[in-house]
Amino acid sequence: MPFIKLSADGQISLPLEIREKLGLKPGDLLSIEPTDQGLSVVPVAEQPHLSAKPILQESIARKNLETTMQFIRGIGPKLSEALAKKGIVTVEDALWLLPNRYEDRRALTPIARLRPGTTEVFSGEVLAADTVQTRGGKRFFEVIIGDGTATVTLKWFHYNLRYMKGIWKQGRRGIFTGEVAQYGYQREIHHPDVEWLADGESPAAAMERDPVSFGRIVPVYPLTEGLHQKTMRKVLKAVVDRYVASVGTSIPSEIAARHNLLPLDEALREVHFPASTDDLAPFNESRSTAHRTLAFDEFFFLELGLALKKQGVTMEEGIAFQVTHRYTRELLKRLPFPLTSAQRRVLSEIKEDMMAPHPMHRLVQGDVGSGKTLVALMAALIAAENDYQVAIMAPTEILAEQHYLNIHRWCEELGVRVTLLTAAMKGKTRSSALADIAAGTAQIVIGTQAVIQEKVEFARLGLGIVDEQHRFGVLQRGLLGKKGKNPDILVMTATPIPRTLAMTVFGDLSLSVIDELPPGRTPIETRVCPESRRTTVYDIIREEVAKGRQGYIIYPLVEESEKSDLKAATQMAEHLAWDIFPDLRLALLHGRMKPEEKEAVMAAFKNCETDILVATTVIEVGIDVPNATLMVIEHAERFGLSQLHQLRGRVGRGSGKSRCLLLTSGKLSDDGERRLRVMESTNDGFMIAEEDLSIRGPGDFLGTRQAGLPDFRVANILRDGRILEVARKEAFALAEKDPHLTMPENDRLREELPRRWGGRLELAGIA
Length: 767
Ligand code: ADP
Ligand code: MG
Fold this sequence. Notes:
The chain folds into 5 domains: 45 residues, Pemi-like Protein 1, Chain: D, CATH 2.10.260; 109 residues, CATH 2.40.50.140; 93 residues, no CATH class; 187 residues, 3-Layer(aba) Sandwich (Rossmann fold); 159 residues, Rossmann fold, CATH 3.40.50. The protein is 39% helix and 18% strand. The strands form 5 sheets. A 7-stranded parallel sheet has the order 13-14-12-15-16-11-17, sandwiched between helices. The protein has a 6-stranded parallel sheet with strand order 18-23-22-19-21-20, with helices on both faces. A 5-stranded mixed β-barrel has the order 4-5-6-8-7. Helix 12 packs across helix 27 and helix 24 packs antiparallel against helix 25. It starts with 15 loop residues before the first helix and ends with a helix. Bound molecules: adenosine-5'-diphosphate (ADP) and magnesium ion. The site of adenosine-5'-diphosphate (ADP) has 18 residues, from helix 15.
């Protein structure tokens, strides 16, 4: 096994042995994605023209922005290393590192007028300085400063006594900055900044000595170890002064004017060093014109990419399916229930797309239990009726297997051949599955990521269905599309994605929403139970089983691969089986079991041969056993909201009344408390998603990186939702007017777009 070593700059080069094995030539394009097992490296078959020709004419400005920080005057190796730790390697990185907040240091405030709750700058003289010991035995260093109008107390709780005594000498004068707090009658400042005055120097003269830190609105940057505010400010001042002019504006002037945007270089200068006539508040709230300009700029490029992609897809030639009803009508006849009206509406939207001579790119959103699988199956049957193959991709083996079992059952009766393909399949089973897929005898192929691996060849792939999309990214969608000739793509997600986020992450897809649950479902009753009520929880489990129902007990695994966690889950299962429920039938299910074992455990549970399934989060998505009416989640405080909602969605799938008990242990964090209360108060996936987004923030919620989208440097989807909408409208309008960006006024856009998207444009299908 050859080893791969990261070079000093974090690059990897593949050993010859591997390159030969994969038949790779220099210049080939690889897609690298983190997976549960590690990294998956997939060669990308065709290389669109974009990568062949140099993407950009390297202008001088561009080169300037790529200057590494160590070449800037005043930055030595130590400082550049500290900066690199913060992700600041080039001038461009530095320019886009925005201040966290701003301090108003335009003028000094007399001490008598210092306002509690604000960061103030004032000058004064040290009247006294010494260590103080509280009655509780705590020590702190205290300094009294006076300026003739009043006095104020400075305090340090972490300090080096020798050093402090050395510098805080009575009579010494300085300029002090810090947040003023009020304790009773006393105003205090903890750990202030100081700039000492020289003998006889006036405060005004001292302020002029350091025009970066005084006499202006001063930026405060996010720091890491080894970096000081003052240094950061100096670095940024040097960078802004020397390089900001190299930043060009690519947004067409007409659009910029319509939304009152600044040129990009001006916006960057402002955002680092606001003019002294500016209002402080909009800067501190990231709502200044400069901030707005930067956010717009980022959103605009994202949306332009998505717009061109969407347009490209609709202009491309695709398969025009015909609806023959051969299989679909048969299936509907055999179903024990009618489709809900939401299912019918979404299906007709899908049909319309499939019949059009362009590839479908549609996202179906539906809460857990809304019946997405059936919609997917109907679409699959339409493709099968047209003699095309279908690939259904699920995020986990268990889910793929479950889909297989469900779908296989129906398809067998209809005479449609279904094949399972997972990474766990080896040897003969695997090779015969591959052969069936290549020959086209496998009409519907259900699998995990294994389906998009390079070895898998379809005879006639007409439709790709991706289930539970939030686990896959734009890139995988792209790879699936490459398995056929512009096949239709249908994406299914149970995560009700809030509008703003859906627009960003899935902005290139058309959206269908199944906004109705099948009838007869009673809402799940959810209760939070502290550890002290564990025996009550056990009683409830017993009650449910006595009624002939089944239940889940979920155990959190931080990492499915963590041995210690796994042990905890296994021990818990044993404890429950032997000590608590010796008379009930329990089974354990976790991610590290062999596929056959998992399948056997699931099948037994489905057939009602097991009363209680103790499981890890492997059952999170898609598992469907309507007789299960009880969900107990251990350590519920450790789960995120969406995950809790997904887990809870495993019950309440039949007409029986279902319950979800959230066991908690220890003291809950504020966020933990908030999550659990949300779960108690609603079953509505949309409300839960909105809450989740506001608790976690967008990056964490979906992971734009994982979704294959550019990261935002400035923009924040939550804060800047309005800007996103406007930028999107403009970008889509522009893409419609100039689909190939060939109009002269869009020259700069055409050059800038691929750069903003990195190498991701072509994989996302925009090229
Ligand atoms: P999800 O959207 O979470 O994937 P599923 O497709 O697993 O939901 O469906 C949940 C359950 O609802 C399944 O047992 C399925 O058979 C059932 N179901 C789907 N459509 C209907 C319907 N129109 N009427 C009644 N039950 C339905
Ligand atoms: Mg599902």
